[in-house]
Design a protein that fits this description.
Layout: E1 2-7, E2 21-26, E3 29-35, E4 52-54, H1 60-63, H2 65-74, E5 83-87, H3 89-96, H4 104-110, E6 111-115, E7 121-124, E8 127-133, E9 141-147, E10 150-154, E11 173-177, H5 195-204, E12 209-213, H6 221-232, E13 237-238, E14 244-246
Parallel strand pairs: 3-4, 4-5, 5-6, 10-11, 11-12, 12-13
Antiparallel strand pairs: 1-2, 1-14, 2-3, 7-8, 8-9, 9-10
Helix pairs in contact: 5-6
């Protein structure tokens, strides 16, 4: 299983750093996971090779490029049709809210939408995915990806509370949001993780490797890595747009 980092900027994109987005690839199957602004044009493959789309939640920095994809796949001589898109129901509500009256049948032809929530599962080729509810301000799912006895858990956006961390137990790679550093944590909004919290949870769950994402442009990535390493007690890396890693 290979993860291509399309974008990893937290909250909003920056030059050279699209917002949240990854291409998860295994044996010719390619799934676009989260579609933050800037990720469609930065896909590392021809967009027509994307087999399905998975979205963690409705916030724009994770789903707004679905609209870009809709126009690119629809308004051309040979439109794509029936592309699977799996996401919480609220994502589809938000996306369809941008569609002009009369376009509803068009977007329903382009995408085949399936709502997902805690406990749901899916399969794309040889990739098996299970979804778990996350601790965020809107309905959100984390996703556990399995293939050839290798496992990846992607948090999407979440705070440290809740039972979601069990879904990351013993995974080979945890791709975790790290929106805060210890000096920037907001006690009034505990719906994101600090880098240190990500490291601690990864250690407690027996995660083998930790990769940080969703670090806002105004934070020093090296400081986030340092804080995560203090609690994870082993080396930590950050998701770099344009790079990839094997699980």
């Amino acid at each position: 299983m290979r993860v291509h980092v399309i974008g990893s900027s937290g909250t909003f994109p920056a030059p050279g750093r699209p917002a949240a987005g990854f291409l998860i690839e295994h044996r010719g199957t390619r799934v676009w996971c989260d579609a933050g602004p800037g990720t469609f044009v930065a896909l590392p493959v021809d967009p027509d090779l994307v087999d399905a789309v998975v979205i963690s939640h409705q916030h724009a920095d994770h789903c707004s490029d679905i609209l870009t994809a809709f126009h690119a796949w629809t308004y051309r001589p040979q439109p794509r049709e029936g592309i699977p898109i799996l996401a919480p129901e609220s994502v589809w509500d938000r996306v369809c809210g941008f569609v002009d009256k009369g376009q509803e049948p068009v977007i329903d032809r382009t995408f085949s939408f399936r709502p997902v929530a805690d406990g749901d599962t899916a399969r794309f080729g040889d990739l098996e995915v299970s979804f778990t509810g996350m601790n965020h301000s809107v309905p959100a799912v984390g996703s556990r990806w399995e293939a050839d006895d290798r496992t990846l858990f992607y948090t999407g956006d979440t705070g440290p509370g809740g039972a979601w961390r069990e879904a990351a137990r013993d995974v080979d790679v945890m791709l975790s949001e790290a929106s805060y550093q210890e000096s920037t944590k907001d006690p009034g909004y505990p719906m994101h993780l600090s880098a240190a919290e990500a490291g601690l949870i990864a250690r407690e769950m027996g995660v083998h490797r930790l990769v940080l994402t969703h670090i806002p442009p105004y934070l020093d990535v090296s400081q986030s890595i340092h804080e995560a390493e203090q609690t994870f007690d082993r080396p930590v890396s950050a998701a770099v747009p344009g790079a990839n890693f094997d699980v």
